Amino acid sequence: MSTSIENVAASPKETGADEYYTFVEGVGNIPRDIYKLVKSDPLGDLPRYSVHIVIQHFVTFVTFLILAATGLTLHFASLWWAPLVMKLFGGTDMARVIHRVAAAFMVLASVYHLITIIGGTLHKIMTKKFNIKRTQIPLLKDAYDIVHDIKYFLGKEDQRPKMHKFMYKQKLHYVAILWGTFVLVSAGTSLLFPETMATIWPNPRFGQDLARLMHADEAIMAITVIVFWHWSNVHLVPGRFPLQWSFLTGKITREHQIEEHFLEYVYNLQEIPEEREYMKKILRENGYDTN
Amino acid sequence: MEFKRCVTRKTLFLVIFLLFSFMTSGVYAADKENCLMCHKYRQIGRIDEKGHKRSYFVSENIYANSVHRNVPCRDCHTYIDKLPHDPVTQEVNCANECHIKPPFSSENFSHRKIIDVYNKSVHGAQEDDSPTLRAAKPYCKYCHLNPIYTRVEEQRIAFEETLGRCLNCHERKGVTQAYKHITHRLRSKTSRSPQEIVQLCAKNCHADLVLMKKLKVSKESLEAVKTYNESIHGKAVGLGSQIAADCVSCHATSSIHDIYKKDEPHSTVNKANLVKTCKQCHENVTERFAQIDVHSEIGPHEKPVLYTVNVILGFAFYGSVFGLIGLAMLESYGRRKDGIKMQIIHGTSWRGHSKRDKSK
After folding, report:
1. Distance from CA of B281 to the nearest CA of A (A)
2. Per-residue DSSP letters for B56-103?
3. Is the distance from CB of B239 to CB of A86 less than 8 angstroms?
4. How many CB atoms neighbour CB B7 within 10 A?
5. Chain B interface includes A18 (CB < 8 A)
6. Could you say which DSSP state residue B227 is in?
């Protein structure tokens, strides 16, 4: 099994990323825009996230909303709506406790995530199933993809680049979350335990000021990116409205997988016999050759 | 029958309630010399030289519930020595001794002691003060502006449970008052809420930048209200916190009135005393902890490194937000043109026709 995956992984490079047809063993030549012809279940057709990731996302998004609501209100304390939101949380002193409890749960989710990611990767390496192209690690190809994707959006290219399980958007977001969580957790720890952190910071006066600055600025950046970008991508852009069920089912729709994660779909064809049969059927129905 | 009984019971309750609501408290103020003979009349007063209406009415009921209820009128209004008295030109001096003996004390009560503490503080009038400064300095009633000196409302302590034991020996009225007088001072540093303290210090004085500049205060002092309101203490207090630090939490000891400039050795915010001051709330306070700024002003001159970091973060913020929103909008534009619809219906969202130029 592992040898066939390596072959497939190498195939797009050999055939060229901008080729219209992609040959897949046992299926045939698949045209790049086949996603316009397939049928999808809105709840998802193909595996994308394990149950661990679904749980981690759930805990993170619930705690994120609580942290944002309590933290933003405290940061913008002088605005007219701040006291009203504080009342909703049972007063300022209670809101501060809620913020800390939510933060503890978010840290737990982050630790859980690190354990699953590191453990899962080690397991894959040991069973020789590890493939760097199916991970969140940014590669040079992502820079190539973003340039060509923008060219497609502007109408200068006919097809979107063939991308892996995690395209440039997800990798950008993932790196931002890693950095943001690191900054927010370390700065937040400094705000919560100033006495202890004062003994650790080389210059406590500068360190505490930096922590105050970074915690607020980084949080506002995270909230803005989530609200305006993440929510656009998963709720508002065409084809994803009103929401994708991936966050609960862990599955991605077929048309989405082929459009934005074509190379992952090729792996899916290798791994799932039913999907091969389905694709052959679609190809035949639309007058393409199969084998 | 049932209905009738119900009505009678309700009427009975109503009658009892009305009876209670018309009951007077039955307390009497200390008026040995019968000043209320005249001052009990609601209309007593005059129009002064400036045309302001002045009322000389004293409500016995309100006075009898104030903290000064046991103090005879002339203990404070000492300048009155005959009846009918001359027009009043003097202010009441809070340092007067009154003919009240506190429990377990042989001396008459006076505010003298706290006034001495206050006079030594930065707010007390000094010999070398300029006339502007002297005029700007607060006096007792400037902060103690509870106009009728009513007692502090105590909603947060469990009276009945605690008082129950006192009542085994003591009379309810006396012991309740004594208990209230002491307990609200035991629980927190002041009987005022942090919000009241910040209001008192800021309003009309420390937030009045024109006045502060005229008095030539230091730069830190000039920005104190602004930087406090931006600090975590200030924000929490502004939103109603009862435990976050207010002005006097750090700037005075438990005698509240001993506020000094930070260079003075007995100032609570003097470098030598900071550890002790922070320890009131923070645990494990060290010299290093005391270095942390409470009123932190991040400007280009005070903290250039932090200021630069802040500016760079600002650029990163606008760059990423507008860049990413632009990308999402561009993506939507391009895919819409290629024929995608908003929602997956009948298994696909690619129900439209591509309007893209296929000739390329």
Report:
1. 11
2. ----HHHHTTBTTTTS-HHHH-TT--SSSPPPP-SPP-TT-B-S---T
3. yes
4. 10
5. no
6. H
* pLDDT tens digits in sequence order for chain A, 291 residues long: 333 444 444 444 444 567 899 999 889 999 999 999 999 999 999 999 999 999 999 999 999 999 999 999 999 999 999 999 999 999 999 999 999 999 999 999 999 999 999 999 999 999 999 999 999 999 999 999 999 999 999 999 999 999 999 999 999 999 999 999 999 999 999 999 999 999 999 999 999 999 999 999 999 999 999 999 999 999 999 999 999 999 999 999 999 999 999 999 999 999 999 999 999 999 999 988 887
Do A125 and B272 touch, CB atoms closer than 8 A?
no
**Which pLDDT score, from 0 to 100, does residue A221 have?**
94
H/E element holding A23? strand A21-24
Q: What is the 3-state secondary structure (H, E, C) of A102-164?
A: HHHHHHHHHHHHHHHHHHHHHHHHHCCCCCHHHCCCCCHHHHHHHHHHHHHHCCCCCCCCCCC
A 137-176 near B (Cβ less than 8 A): 149-150, 152-158, 169, 176
- What is the three-class DSSP state of A30? strand
C-alpha A257/C-alpha A268 separation (Å) is 10
pLDDT digits (tens, 9 = 90+) for B75-101: 888 888 888 888 888 888 888 888 888
Residues A290, A27 contacting (CB under 8 angstroms): yes
Q: Is A287 exposed, middle or buried (0-12, 13-18, 19+ CB in 10 A)?
A: exposed
Quote the longest CA-to-CA distance of chain B.
Answer: 112
Q: Name every chain A residue with its beta carbon within 8 A of the beta carbon of B298.
A: 209, 213
**CA of B185 to nearest chain A CA: how many angstroms apart?**
21
Mean pLDDT calculated for residue range B135-139: 86
Contact A255 B349 (CB under 8 A): yes
Q: Which of residues 198-217 of A touch B (CB under 8 A)?
A: 198-199, 201, 204-206, 208-210, 212-214, 217
Task: Go through B42-65 and write b for each residue having 16 or more CB atoms within 10 A of its CB, e for each that does not.
Answer: eeeeeeeeeeeeeeeebeeeebbb
CA B203 to CA B138: how far, in whole Å?
12
CA B103 to chain centre: 30
Cα B329 from Cα B335, distance rounded (Å): 10
Interface of A with B in 40-79 (CB under 8 A): 40-42, 73-75, 77-78
